[in-house]
Each structure stands twice: as C-alpha cells, then as structure tokens.
Amino acid sequence: MNLSVLRRSLILRLVGISLLLLLIVQAAGFAVVRASIERNARSQIARALDTDENVWRRLLDQNAEKLRQGSALLAADYGFRSAINSDDEETIQSVLENHGNRIGAAVTALLGTNLELRAASLSDDMLDFPATLRQVVPPLAAQPQGSQVAMMAGVPYQFVMVPMRAPVVIGWVLMGFPIGQPLAEEMRRLLSVQVAVVVQAADGSVSVPVTTLSAPALASLHRQGLPLVELKTGEGTLLAREAPLGNAGNEVKTLLLRSVDEVVAPYQQLQVLLAIITVAGVLLFAVGTGLVAQRLTTPLRSLLAATQRLSRGEYGVPLGHTDRKDEIGNLARSFDRMRLDIGSQQAEIRRLAYWDRLTGLPNRERFREAVVHAIDAQVGDALRPLTVLTLDLDRFKHVNDVLGYAFGDRLLQAVAERLQKQVPGDSDMVARLGGNEFAMLLLRTDAKGAHAVAQRITQSFEEPLAFEDQTVDLSAGMGFACWPADAEDADTLLSRSEIAMYAAKRKLSGALRYDESLDSASALTLSLLTELRRAVEHDELRLYLQPKVPLHGQGGLAAEALVRWQHPRRGLVPPMEFIPFAEQTGFVRQLTLWMFEETARLLADPRTAAMPLRISVNLSTRDLLDPELHTRLGAILARHGVQASAFCLEITESAIMDDPLRAEAMLNRLSEQGFKLSIDDFGTGYSSLAYLKRLPVDELKIDKSFVMGMESGEDDAMIVRSTIDLAHNLGLTVVAEGVENLAILDRLRALSCDEAQGYHISRPLGAEDFLVWQARQLTASSA
C-alpha cells in the first residue's frame, strides 16, 4: 500500500473513531438533558397546577361567599321582609331583581319554609330553573354554608342559599351566578393557565361551554374526551388537571391546562447554545485530533517504510526520529536496534548458508549458484567450455576413527589450502561440498585442461601431511564433467561430476571423466527402491528354505531361510539383483524383519510346531549395528509364541569387522536371548580369528568357494579340514555350503563336518514344498 494512502487512512481512522466516541457521548448527554428537562418541566407544571387548582377553588369560594353575603343582606333587609309579609308578588320580584343586579347575581329566588319557589328573578332562557331548583336546594338546605353547581341553559351556575329568620325561619333566599368566560379569563390573566369548563353528558359526549383554549386545542379536547391527563395538539402538549365543581350530578368539571412547550422553551434556548458549543467543540476536537494523529503517523510512516526496507533486505539505512524523548522515540530506537541486530544476523546467516565454517571455502549451495551463474553468463555469446571437478578423500573415516575428529578437521583445512593453490585462474572456485568431498569450478577449461588440473592435484597429494608427530598420506578419487558436452544445466553437471568421481573411487583409477555408461543403471536403481517398498507392502516377497542335512545321524532338522521376489511383471527376481542394492540403501533392515516375521510364522504353524526344526536367518552389517535389533526380534518372537532357540542367526565376517565393539555387544545380547549364532562365509575374511574366541558364536559356516574347490585342489581341502578342526577345538559345530555332488558330500562326512547344504541335497524350496520334502525325508529315514 502507498505510504501516503496509508497515512491518510490511519489519520482518518483516528479522527473518525475519536469524533464518533465524542458524538456518542454528546448524544447521550443531550438525551439525558432532554429527558431531565422534560421530567423537570412536567414536575414544575404539576406543582403549578396544584396552585392553579387551589386558586380556582378559591375564586369559586370567593364568588360563593359574595353571593352568600348578598343573600344574607337581602334576607335581613327590612323592606324585603315587609314585602314578603305583604305577599306582594310584584314587590318581591322587584326587590329580588334589584338586589341581584347590585351584587351581580344572575339568579335570585325566594323559597318558602317548605323550600318551594315563591318568586324568582330569571332571564327568559332559564326555562329549566325548576328542575335545577330541585337539584341544588336539598344539598344547600342540608349545608347552608356550602355552594352547589348546576347546569342551566347549557351554562354552569354556582348557587348559595341562606335562611330568613324572624326569629324563626320564614323562608330562604337563593342566589346564583354563572361560571362563565370572565372567570376563566381572570384565571388566565392571573396565572397564565388555560381553563376549560367541561360538561359530560350521560351518554359520554362532552361539551365545553367555557374555555380559554384555542380552536385547535379545543378540537383536540373533543377528540380525546375525558378523563384527560395530557392533551396533544398541533401547537404542543398541554398537561391537564381535572378539578370537580361539586355539582350534584358530577357532570361539570374544570380542566386546568398548562403548556409543556412554554416551560421547556427557555431550556430549548439553552440546548441550542449547548449544541453550538458542542459543534464548535467537535470541530476543535477534530482539528486537535488530526494534528495529534499526524504527529503520531509521521514517525509511524517512517517506521513502516523502514520495515519495508527490512523486508527487502536493506539493513544499511538508519531510522529517523530516534532523537525523540517520548514513546515514539523509544519505539524508533528499538526498531533501529532491531535493524542492526537483524542485519548482523542476516550477514551471519548468509555466511553460514554459503560458506563452510571449517575451511572458509564456499559450500555446496554457493558453489551451485556459481555454476548456474557461469552457465547463464554464456547464453548468447560464443560458448566457452567449463568443467566441474569433484574429489573425495580416501580413508578419511579411518583418520577420524584413529586420530580423532580434531585431527580430521585440520586435515580438511590443509587439503583446502592445497586445492586453492591448484586452481588455474582467479575466477575459478574451490568449494567444500560436505564431509571430505570438495569440488572445483574451472572456467574456460575443457576435458584436457581438467585432466591437467587433476594431475597437479594428484602430485600435490604425493607429499604427506605432517601434524605434530602424525603423518598422513593423501589420496582421492576424482571425477569431472564438462559443459556443454556432458550436461546442459548446472544440477546435471554437478550430479554427473559426482557420478564420475564415485566411479573413479570404485575403479581405483585417476581422474575419470563422466560417461553415460557410468550411470546407465541410475534410473533402474531409483525405481528399484520404490518397487522394493511396494513389494513388502503388496506381499510380493516369498520365503524359500534350503535344507541342511546332518552328516553323522544327529537329531533335528535345519534349513536356511532365503528370500525371493515374485515381481508382477518380471517374474521371479533372483536375490543377487536386489539384495546388494538393499544392503547399500539400508532397506535390508526391512527385508531382515520381513524374513524373521515369515520364519516365525512358519515355526508357529501347527505342521512345524512338533518338528525339531531350526531355521537360519542372515543378518547384514546394518542389522548388526542397529541398537534396537534384539528388541525388534524379541517382539516378533512374543507375537508368534516362538522360542529363540529355533533360530540360527548367520553373520558374515565383514559385518563383524566393520565395527567390532558394537557387533560384539549386539551378539552378546542376541546370545543371551537364546539365539544360536553362526559365522557365515568363514575363511573369506582376514581378521575374524582374533575375535572368534571372544564372540558367543555356536557355529562356523565354511564358504562354498572352498567346499566346491575340494574336488580340484588339495589346498581348498586343507582349508576345509583345518577349519573343521579349529571349530571343533573351540566347541563349535561346522556347516559346509555349496555341496554340488555326492563326492563332496562323502569327503565332508569323512572330515567330520557336522552339517551340509547345497544343490546336491536340495535347491531352495517354497515353504509348502519344504514341508513336503521334510515329510518325504522322514518317511525315507523311518523305512
């Protein structure tokens, strides 16, 4: 990603996240403030409505008291009393009207002692007064000090009644005034509260004869009806309080309403101011955060660029901002130290990856790169030959074993110095490929020049190396391959140079150039290992047994276990075509375990369990040097329930002499397990006699070359006789292999040989055929 794009992206993310968090906090604050304002406004309106209700009731009480005082004044008036006593209806009517007008009463009436109407001052629209009279008089008679509200002509009226005494009650004076618009307007002026006198009919319909509400609010009131706590209008929200007027039917109520918006309005201005401050703060915060983010991202961008350079392997450019005293400076200094450490580590890694630490020469990888570069550099130009010469020191393992690894290292360093002196040009290269193997890259050198270089190396090795009091003679097998004649690419050139070198070591010749005949079997060898593995997995191997016969009537039956390969395409493959290869590659261990498994399975078979049968199994050098061999064999015995004494393990002299100490230790373990041990091909070695008396062996097996030569030469017969005598003197039994005819068999019997095997007795047989052969032999001997 582009650094500038990354920088902008990081700044935007920092600023965006910071602003988002700030806006969330501000929004939450606004929500809390708004809810608090709403709650406080409603609480304030509720308290104001409490006051409004008290004031309203007080106004009604004052009007009632005014009427009561007027009624009392009229009842005490002498002229009114006189008019009543005269029963002059017109005079009484006139007095009631005049007095009612003076005190503002809309209704003035005189009731008799039995509370019946005697005279009244009424307007023409008060036709339902008699019904109203019957509604309000009984309560007022029961409580003269109170007041009653009743409806007349669709208008609520407040009534009071006082008695006339002379000194007993001679009648009642009733006065009423309308609860009309003036009273509501007065409440509006005094307390800024909306007033609505609501009349609810029996059918639930609502009428509002008196109100200070606007037309839209009044329409909303009609839609919502009673009971009412909150009135929603297009002009805002009004909180309502119902105040009953104490009328007989409870159909008249007063609604006191206050606007929530009017109470909240002052706070809304404060909210607007707070919003302006918030916007200004957000802008200021954005600018400040952007500056801080830029201050942070600038060194981070520098560090990012440095990491990209590090990823490309550029360790020489120092980081900036290391002089800062803050955390960024600490981070930059840490990165710079890391840069230096990684640079030094990479340099060391490159040195270890491409150079040999012991000799200071290029290693195999560096040498291969040089060969690749040398070949690629000639593409398009006139091709100039180049040669890769490979050499491997002789007997180097023996030097390490006898003189120690420190001496071996000094020897390799000395060889490297001598080889560097033999390169013909400054551009040529000497490398150590590994172990005691070296190589030379000879530019502009053909086969003739390579032979000359190999000759000089051989001459330089003629002078022994002397270290302290040790002198070592040097020799090496050398092979070379030329480009482009012998190979088209670097890897093939290296491989074929090594093939020539190994061929030279086998033939004990001087430097050998690669030839196709040297590795004609390479492809076959590679495929052979794969096929051998498949042979074990797909049960293509077959167990064969070659009988051994006793020569002096000893009891027991014996045979040697052999392996054959039933190839699906090539048929029965002779052992000499795959056994040596298996020993060379190490696959012989799997073959040995397979043979031991199959032999143990045969010995566990009920047909052979009753026979005194002992089967010999060959062990290779790799088997004998396996520290887990005795454990593996013991596991197979336990799995099949077979005794170790039913086996005879045959070991060649060469297998023992490769590593005598380890071989002796393993043979002791195997002998302790109960295995019978035999020295195979005895007489072909040259050092085994020194160890023979120390090894826990039970049998010697004379090599067939001596046995078959007994007919034509007395030397071989003497060797066989001496070997038999030596073995018997050591308490060992003797087996002779290669018995091809009856004459050899008789000669061995005469020499007191214990057992014999060979084609004259029987060829190797499959397991089933072997059992048939044994049964036939037993039948013949019993007859």
Automatic annotation (TrEMBL):
A single MF term (Gene Ontology): cyclic-guanylate-specific phosphodiesterase activity
Pfam families on file: dCache_3 (PF14827), EAL (PF00563), GGDEF (PF00990), HAMP (PF00672)
UniProt KW Signal keyword: no
Protein origin, superkingdom: Bacteria
Keywords per UniProt: Membrane, Transmembrane, Transmembrane helix
HAMP domain residues: 294-347
SMART domains: EAL, GGDEF, HAMP
GO biological process, one term: signal transduction
Residue stretches spanning the membrane: 272-293
Record's GO cellular component terms: membrane
SUPFAM superfamilies xrefs: EAL domain-like, HAMP domain-like, Nucleotide cyclase
GGDEF domain sequence ranges: 384-517
Domain EAL per the UniProt entry, residue ranges: 525-778
Name of protein: Diguanylate cyclase (GGDEF)-like protein
